[in-house]
Design a protein that fits this description.
The structure is a homodimer. By secondary structure, chain A is mainly alpha-helical. The first copy, chain A, has six helices and two strands, in the order αααββααα. In chain A, strands 1-2 form a two-stranded antiparallel ribbon. In chain A, helix 4 packs across helix 5.
Chain lengths: 152, 152
DNA sequence: TTTTCATGTAACTTGTTTAGTTACAAGATG
DNA sequence: CATCTTGTAACTAAACAAGTTACATGAAAA
């Protein structure tokens, strides 16, 4: 199952907590994955201007805009709007009228579900996710993000 | 992409139009696929009692209940409730509080979308799909289902 | 200027899932 | 008993995300 959105949000919040630029290496360790995966995930966000990257000493990744100004819908689009719905039609543009009727019914429902998701995404900012994270940290009694992960 | 629901609905409506039992062979031709695919698709529906199958001469597939009594939700469940949403979490039960916050936000949205789909499915019967199909047939001026497919 | 660090990106491998295919056993009808 | 049809397992093919490896590019430090 596609976990790119989940992954990239995780990365972004870690970045936001990080003092100064965070390298792909650092982020990859926090996510138990590979630096190249981080770079691949972030490519679209960089192009859209949500994050910045720099090469060489002291380089790495930084937020380029405030968390308040970035919604989940922005992040989702920056990933290339990957498929949300797992069920599709057997064929688009079928000649068979039976299949047309089936497609019409399913399309209507799936479009509504997709619209619902995008609506909600557009109403959640990275800042609100960050607030939720800090609330969880208080609830647990952790003082730093470093206490909060052991590889995951 | 998973097109089993689309496929099985297509099969069911063809079956409903068919005089007497329809063989897997016949249905497979109408769907441009293989008889074994039809049998595999229908296995769950047979177990749930929505369709009947018979071996030997004059055998094949028939509806076991009126179209009016079968909803898309019934069919969906008979398929084993395959995944509706294509995006998931990187890991369930993460230790990382960042990931917990991300998961919570995504889960909430995805659950809502899934509930919306299932709600709609439960309100659409095979009979209503069939009515839509017949309306399309009238609109096109076809007199028989046989005019409506050339392999699809 | 040379070394080191870090990103950018392509290519390949792996794992998972659906669809399609083949083959054949089991059972029902003529 | 011959034929038809389902039931099911096993295999292949195609698609796709994720992980991995490798190396070119470019920036900072020594």
């Amino acid at each position: 199952m596609d976990s790119r959105l989940s992954g990239v949000l995780h990365v972004l919040l870690h970045m936001a907590e990080h003092e100064g630029p965070a390298t792909s290496e650092t982020l990859a360790r926090a996510m138990s994955t590979n630096p190249a995966v981080i770079r691949r995930l972030m490519a679209g966000l960089r192009e859209e201007g949500y994050v910045r990257s720099a090469k060489g000493h002291g380089g790495g990744w930084e937020m380029a805009r405030p968390l308040e100004e970035i919604t989940l819908a922005d992040v989702y689009r920056a990933l290339g709007s990957p498929t949300l719905i797992a069920m599709g039609n057997r064929s688009e543009q079928p000649q068979c009228l039976v299949e047309q009727a089936v497609n019409a019914a399913l399309d209507e429902t799936m479009s509504a579900a997709e619209a619902l998701v995008l609506d909600r995404f557009s109403e959640v900012t990275l800042a609100s996710l960050s607030r939720d994270f800090h609330a969880r940290m208080l609830a647990r009694g952790s003082l730093s993000i470093k206490d909060t992960h052991n590889g995951s």
